[in-house]
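Risk register update: the risk of archive-format incompatibility is retired. Evidence:
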Amino acid sequence: MYVVDPQADTLALYIDITKLPQHSAYNMSSSEEESDQEVEDEEFNRAFGGHHRISNDFRDAIVSIKDNSGAIDELDIGIYESFPIVGLRQDTSRLTSLAWRLFGRYIANNTHLKTIDLHNCNINNQKMTLFFSELVRSNSLKLLILSNNSFGIEGLRVMVPFLRNAAKLECLDVDDNNNMDTECFELLVSTFSGTDVEELSFGNCNITDISALERFNVSRLTVLHVDGNNIGRQGFNIVSNLLQQEGSVLKAIGLSNAGVGDDETEMLVNSLKHNTSLEHLYLDKNNIGKRGCIALLKLVNDISSIESTYNSNRTLKKLVSNEFDNDGRVRSAPSDFQVSEQMKRELENALYVNDRRMWDVNTPAEVRNNNYDLLEAENPEDVGRTKVIKYQLNSQRRKELCQLQGIEYSSIFVDIEPNLLPKILVLIGQRHGQSELYTALLSLGPELTSFVDTKAIIKDKISYYSKELARLNSWLALKELGDSKHLGGAEKGSGNNRIAEEGTNKRQRTDE
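Archived output:
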């Protein structure tokens, strides 16, 4: 019925709901929703209430994820040695079993969260079961970091249904899980077969066999880390084969502390001679000596000829991750290579050119800090050209590189077309200064004479002396005849016919 409010200035209509027909189904649904909400609120308070000493920041983040508000698309609660730049430093040891289960449920229902970092969060097989049994429905995540935890094959088996459903997942990091092994590696690689996963990290996971990479299709993989695992010679063969595959898209491979010696280095170098995708090959904390380092140097800067330098690998940029020198400069090659400082320096210089940087290890720090772009290198061909100018056209640098690579030093100008020499000399003067230009000119003596057309000069000389001989014979004949009039003109004509003829004509005009 309608009720008029006598106190209102305008007519107001009220519905007396007590007089409306009652629908038990409606009341039951409403009651159930209220009951479910009460249960959910109670569970949340039990799991994330203040009595657990959970930080307010972490609790607010959980609420945002639970409500699917879109305020958070990245959650970092990993415990690192240093405070993370972005994230929540949450002691996950305080999370109960209920909290882990609800945590997984809230994430599964969230459509905005793309990154979760659970590094060093004390996650064992039990917590993996609680977390991933609820997370299985999630399909928004792109990056999942579970490094430095303690789960093994049982925890991974519970995670597999989530991985198969996570169509958008691009990166999985399970580094430093001591309970993992080769079986865990094979399970994850087989699960990702045929998917779009791009990055897999298995550092220090007790893996001894990586043949799963050959048996299953992970062709979209761009980053693979197997650092700290004893993968053996067979493993390096598998990595080499992956790098040689046509259409390989691998951009980074981590082999730090993986038992790489000179033989393994040469194997990897051979696989990279025609590879145009790999940019980072992490080889620090290994046992690489002179032979392996020479192979790496020749890969990125083969000084044996101009053509070899130009065609040297142009994509490999770094051989070490997160290492700095005494000046705070990011290193491109490991400091623990067992070779001379000069060898390491030249290796870094070539890698810097590949990285399209104008400077090298000899460039002052103030210049490096103000300039991080490479001169004219906008494509791989420019990188090759830069190397030729930087190393082949500098005799001192080339001589040093020849000694380092065990190559006999000789002149580069022998095989250059003579018509190109002027342009090359200009480049030498512009890029390496007058001293280097002078050195080049000294060595170019024989080559520069090739610019002179000796045959044409000889023909001109023959023609000139033939005319001179004819004139002298004419003079001799006139002298014998006693023709003093023409003889005087012939005498004055010695050395230049044109002048002699002009003088004769003048005298003839005077006589007339």
